[in-house]
Amino acid sequence: MEILSGTLCLLGAFFFMAGTVGLIRFPDSLSRIHALTKADNLGLGFIVLALVVTSQSLTVAFKLILIWLLALVASSSICFFLARKLIHRG
């Protein structure tokens, strides 16, 4: 279980790093927002999955998944509103 958890944490860190590289390297704001949102959501999902694998109780695992779902909805909503504002600005 520890090897699986470590592998999932490394995958999560890789996606966080990929999102950061996308934030720095992409040319326009819409591409940057897209790269950062998608990669961070996937990275957080892998980190949460690693924590779920090592959790001792089912309630802790359920709470972790709920936190990830809340972060997923919040970041997607914020990305949508930022992109809409950028499109209206021109």
Overview of the molecule:
With 90 residues, this protein is an all-alpha fold. It has one domain. It is 91% helix and 0% strand. The chain has three helices and no strands. Helix 1 packs antiparallel against helix 2 and helix 2 packs antiparallel against helix 3. It is elongated, with a radius of gyration of 15 Å. 14% of the residues are buried. The mean pLDDT is 91.
Write the layout of secondary structure elements.
Blueprint: H1 2-25, H2 29-54, H3 58-89
Please give a handful of descriptors for the protein shown.
90 residues; 3 helices; 91% helix; 0% strand; mainly alpha
Task: Summarize it.
The protein has 3 helices and no strands. It has helices at 2-25, 29-54, 58-89.
Structural domains: how many: 1
Tell me the strand percentage band.
under 5%
Unreliable residue stretches: none
Rounded to an integer in angstroms, the radius of gyration calculated over CA atoms is: 15 Å
Which bin fits the share of residues in helices? over 70%
For the record, give the distance between the C-alpha atoms at the N and C termini, rounded to a whole number.
50 Å
**How does the overall form come out from the CA principal axes?**
elongated
Count of DSSP-assigned helices: 3
The number of strands is 0
Structural class of the helix and strand makeup? mainly alpha
Run of helices and strands: HHH
Major sheet summary line: none
